[in-house]
Specification:
alpha+beta, Aminopeptidase, Alpha-Beta Plaits, 2 domains, six-stranded mixed β-sheet, four-stranded antiparallel β-sheet, 20 strands, elongated
Length: about 350
């Protein structure tokens, strides 16, 4: 089978997928079917295709959506610019090349593409639960390094409940906004007293108060205040364990006369947990033997965490999250070098064939 990496990458970056992935999904399905590969689209909108039978089973996963706004395609020599160039249509092009051209004689090679990595991540979580992989490679811009760990990311809120009163007599009530100042100080001490500590690869977790809302009227003592936070976790912390631990800590350290409660935003939706894969795992060694770079952590949360809960998982692909001039992925200047995309496709194909022997 053959696959034109440059042609697909150009068409993919030209196809907007920041609001609706239908056109991008159609491009992928048509590309696979033109190569003679049967595909299916599940209820969530993920694209799945498999070649070969038996074990072992290697899964290639990336996503077909992008963040807004759409940035038009432009080619500057070998540099391809536009929304999704590196996150993650460059990695997608490399994975399609590997999937179509590999010879998985000894096992199964599955391509699983999720439609909502930049938003709800329902697709990736669903794929991870049902594909039953022996190992997974997740396509993201890693500069062709093999990323074996990443922080988790989830959002939550701390609700501070006081008692309302007329602002003319503030001592008659309990000001929840004033109490929130002490609660934030308590949040700042959580990791020193109860956090997971510094991780060998990922460093320390972070807890960032990001939004504060409260009060109903200027002449009223506010009875409630909400602090919305961003948590970047490290192993072995889990989202559930963090929520329980932070709530206990704040109730012990918070001001008298108020109640605090901690909860996750969108608790019924998936969220990426922190993960780490053994640097000696077969999928790591196989990629490096095929020409991939160093084993290191990845700088952003990805759907890799869902697959890592089931089997050894790494993040790999062309492009970078940021360079010496600043952000690249999600930025107006997003780009990828087409030569790196081609190199990534070759590495992935050779690694897949070696893994599936």
């Amino acid at each position: 089978m053959t696959f034109d990496v440059d042609s697909f990458l150009r068409e993919a970056v030209q196809t907007p997928s920041h609001e609706d992935v239908a056109a991008m999904r159609e491009l992928v399905v048509e590309t696979l079917e033109d190569a003679g590969v049967d595909t299916s689209v599940d209820d969530v909108g993920s694209v799945v295709a498999t070649r070969g039978t038996g074990d072992p089973h290697l899964v290639l996963n990336t996503h077909i959506d992008t963040v807004p706004p759409h940035v038009e395609y432009r080619a500057d020599g070998d540099v391809i610019r536009g929304r999704g160039a590196c996150d993650a249509k460059g990695p997608l092009a490399a994975m399609l090349h590997a999937f179509v051209t590999a010879s998985p004689d000894g096992g199964r090679l599955t391509l699983g593409l999720s439609p909502d990595e930049e938003t709800t991540q329902v697709g990736g979580a669903s794929l991870a639960d049902r594909l039953d992989a022996d190992s997974t490679i997740v396509g993201e811009p890693t500069g062709l390094d093999v990323c074996i760990a990443a922080r988790g990311q989830f959002e939550g809120s701390v609700t501070v409940a006081g008692e309302s009163a007329h602002a003319a007599s503030p001592d008659d009530g309990t000001n929840a906004i004033r109490a929130a100042c002490a609660v934030i100080r308590g949040m700042d001490t959580y990791d020193d007293q109860h956090g997971p500590g510094s991780h060998t690869l990922l460093g320390r977790p972070t807890l960032t108060p990001a939004l504060v809302t409260g009060g109903e009227a200027v002449n009223q003592v506010p009875a409630e205040c909400t602090i919305t936070f961003d948590r970047r976790s490290v192993p072995p912390e889990t989202a559930g364990g963090f929520v329980e631990g932070l709530q206990t800590h704040l109730r012990r350290t918070g001001p008298a006369g108020v109640e605090t409660s901690v909860s996750l935003l969108r608790p019924d939706m998936p969220h990426p947990e922190a993960f780490q894969t053994d640097p000696d795992a077969r999928v790591v060694r196989t990629l490096q033997a095929a020409g991939a770079g160093e084993a290191r952590p990845f700088g952003a949360a990805t759907e890799a965490s869902y697959f890592a809960a089931h089997s050894p998982t790494v993040v790999f692909g062309p492009g970078v999250l940021a360079d010496e001039s600043g952000p690249v992925a999600h930025a107006e200047r997003e780009y990828v070098d087409r030569r790196d995309v081609a190199r990534a496709g070759t590495i992935l194909r050779e690694a897949a064939e070696s893994f599936l022997q």
